[in-house]
Amino acid sequence: MAATLLVASFAVFGAMYLAPGSPAGFLLSGRSASPEALAAISARYHLDDPFAVRYLRWLGDMVQGDFGRSLTYRTEVSRLLADRLPTTLMLITMALCVVLVAGILLGRIAAVRGGAVDTTVLVATTFAVGTPSFVAAVLLQGLFAVELGWFPSSGTGDGLLDRIRHLTLPAVALALYLIGMLARVTRAAMLDAFDSDHVTSARGRGVPERLVIRRHVLRNALGTVLTTGGLIVSTLLVCTILVETAFSIGGIGQLLELSTSTKDFPTVQAISLIIVALFMAVNLIVDLVLPLVDPRVTLGTRGGTA
């Protein structure tokens, strides 16, 4: 993880300097400036230092928790992240809960019931997978916020309950695509488990069907479902930028979009590296939990080593 973060930090830092324009041009807001003024701005923000020097200085500050100073907001990036990160984490948590509950439940129903129910779930999940998050955001806003007035169309609200109410539509818009994907993965994994020998043996011993589904089919399918956890979280982290912008939510997704358009290098680099770190942490957790859900992973590794 340390090596991957190091490579990612170099890519994040270097990519910003490949973009057209410059921070100095933004700071001047289109006004003309003398060479002396440009030199003063470059010296203040270390823009005239060699690339390697700027990268090593930035990396050293990041390790110490210093994300630099925002060029747009004229304040510390760490303060911006502290104000906005909790909102984004709450939105992602709500969306993840919706994805896990709805996705696994729909996949289980489709695999167990079959027939018309299975076809209905497949059609519904096809629609969900084919609907981008920003399209879902517009549709949900128009129906439940504008027409019905059940939920607010923007903002984050005050207090826990009001914040949950404000984040409900964004969470559903963020989760819709992933619900369809997870339902299909769960359905396919359970159908594959139904054909395994141990399920046939359990049925032959007279084990009740509900216990067969819970202990032998669903539990074996959870290993496949869990491996998609990294993909689900990474998709949530990326799509939250579009959803937060559509619903005017003051999270790090909207902050990243605004900072990118204004070439606020320190803010973009800090948020990008945090997203990479969160994605890696989720994959590490999945790798650690997977042997607990499916012991065959550990047994297979030991067998391969032997």
Helix content: over 70%
CATH fold descriptor of the largest domain: MetI-like fold
- Rg over alpha carbons: 24 Å
Characterize the largest beta sheet: strand count, sense, and whether it forms a barrel: none
User: Are there runs of 5+ residues with pLDDT below 50, and where?
Assistant: none
Compressed to H and E, one letter per element, the order equals HHHHHHHHHHHHHH
Figure out the total of helices. 14
* Overall mean confidence score, pLDDT: 79
CATH class of the largest domain: Mainly Alpha
Number of strands: 0
What does this structure look like?
The protein has helices at 2-16, 23-27, 35-44, 51-63, 77-113, 115-129, 133-147, 160-194, 197-204, 209-227, 229-246, 252-261, 265-293, 296-305. Helix content is 78%, strand content 0%. It is globular, with a radius of gyration of 24 Å. It has 14 helices and no strands. It is mainly α and 306 residues long. It has two domains: 2-63, no CATH class; 82-291, MetI-like (MetI-like fold). It is found in: Cell membrane. It is a multi-pass membrane protein. This is ABC transporter permease.
